[in-house]
Design a protein that fits this description.
Structural class: alpha+beta
Strand order of the largest sheet: 2-3-5-6
Shape: rod-shaped
CATH topology: Outer membrane efflux proteins (OEP)
Number of strands: 6
Number of helices: 8
Distance between the termini: 41 Å
CATH class: Mainly Alpha
Helix content: 55-70%
CATH architecture: Up-down Bundle
Radius of gyration: 41 Å
Strand content: 5-15%
CATH superfamily: Outer membrane efflux proteins (OEP)
Number of domains: 1
Order of helices and strands: HEHHEEHHEHEEHH
Length: about 425
């Protein structure tokens, strides 16, 4: 029972959270959900797990190396001491068959810092991989933001179009009454019905686009989103221009650390290596090769290995690492330039939409007044339906432009923050 209660708590917490998203979506929730539930997070976990095993493997460099061997051998001849020392008082017969079992043990005492450098290379590589995944996750968040604002734009356009359809229906009723009273021609009513159908066709296209965007968002969030789920317009974000916190910068830093660790590894490889060794065995013969009895034997010692002549290989390898560092600096500078271009574009967009919205509001007021006056002229028979629809379409475009610019201004602000790595 004690195990079931925490499980139930997690169960209701999970479905409570996603139950709320079915009523209404917010940009902040979408960004956090996409980042948390993206499969790339598994890559980070697997990378960290892999690092643990790699470091453990490198740690075994300090463990003693043990090998066992066995050998049975028959020789066609052996040492004959009678030819070397004539008239020996004792007969020395070395058997032609030989048998031995032995074990070699080697223990690293000093490796010149190779193991430490290898661990530094693995750690830096792992951190670079993790930050690379974080950069990919930031790209996913940018994609989510783009889809979310596209959804807002589509739905807002659908709302504006629906309002225009409702207005058109009301005015169509007025025209119908004029037709029934013989004041207006029936062609005027038919033209309004055709225009209404055209509006509804556009509305259908917007609704289908909205459904498609919701499906894309469902994939990015790894969650099922109902078609009736609302999307909340985000608040105006705070304005600040602080330091950029992109994960790509950490990737560059860790790649440089990896190159430096690789350079240290080359230096360590050139250092002398000190080790201890021993051998223990049993057989015939042992170190006393004239003994005919099976017996045990052993030896211990220390050794030094130093490959001090590498014909400049190490120096050239270090030069290669320095060149690769320079290449990273070039890539970082290019990344900075491209990022600055994108940031400047979003800042320009924000300033542009601020100015356009002021004009949009004035244009919309004028278009509404003109469309209203045109309807009065239509009912009086002084203009044709073609002239009237030209004016109401101008009003519709002005309203769409005004509403879209408000959303696009917010999109530019959030795109700027995402480019800065702030959200």
């Amino acid at each position: 029972m004690k195990k079931i209660v925490p499980f139930l708590c997690l169960f209701f917490l999970h479905f409570g959270l996603y139950g709320q998203t079915q009523d209404s979506l917010s940009l902040d929730l979408c960004l956090k959900t996409a980042e948390r539930r993206n499969p790339l997070n598994n890559e980070i976990a697997l990378s960290e797990e892999s690092l643990v095993y790699k470091l453990k493997n490198l740690g075994t460099n300090w463990f003693p190396a043990l090998s066992t061997n066995a050998q049975a051998q028959y020789n066609s001849e052996t040492v004959d001491f009678s030819q070397v020392i004539p008239n020996l008082p004792v007969s020395i017969n070395i058997p032609l068959d030989q048998y031995k079992v032995w074990a070699d043990i080697n223990q690293q005492i000093y490796d010149g810092g190779v193991t430490k450098a290898q661990k530094s290379v693995e750690k830096a590589s792992n951190q670079a991989d993790i930050h690379q995944v974080e950069a990919q996750l930031l790209g996913i968040k940018q994609q989510v933001s783009q889809v979310y604002f596209s959804l807002l734009l589509t739905r807002k356009s659908a709302d504006v179009l629906q309002v225009s359809i409702n207005d058109l229906q009301e005015r169509k009723n007025v025209v119908r009454a004029g037709v029934e009273n013989g004041v207006l021609l029936r062609e005027n009513l038919l033209s309004m019905e055709a225009e209404e159908l055209r509006y509804r066709q556009k509305l259908l296209e917007l609704n289908l686009t909205s459904q498609q965007l919701l499906k894309v968002l469902s994939i990015l969030l790894d969650s099922t989103i109902s078609e009736n789920t609302g999307a909340v317009l985000p608040l105006e974000p705070p304005v600040f221009d602080s330091k950029t916190e992109r994960p790509e910068y950490l990737v560059f830093d860790k790649q440089k650390e990896r190159l430096q660790a690789s350079k240290d590894l080359v230096t360590a490889s050139d250092m002398p290596k000190l080790f201890a060794f021993s051998q223990a065995g049993y057989g015939r013969p042992g170190y006393n090769f004239v003994s005919q009895d099976f017996h045990g034997y052993y030896s211990v010692g220390v050794g030094l290995k130093w490959n001090f002549l590498n014909y400049g290989d190490s120096k050239r390898q270090k030069k290669i690492f320095e060149i690769q560092k320079g290449i990273l600096d070039v890539k970082r500078k290019n990344f900075d330039d491209q990022l600055d271009i994108q940031l400047e574009a979003e800042k320009t967009n924000q300033a542009k939409y601020n100015q356009l919205l002021v004009q949009d509001e004035e244009i919309l007021k004028l278009r509404k007044a003109i469309a209203s006056a045109s309807f009065a002229k239509l009912t009086n028979g002084t203009i044709t339906t073609t002239d009237y629809f030209s004016e109401i379409n101008n009003e519709l475009l002005a309203r769409l432009q005004f509403e879209n610019h408000k959303i696009m201004k917010l999109q530019a602000a959030y795109s700027y923050l995402l480019l800065k790595g702030k959200i």
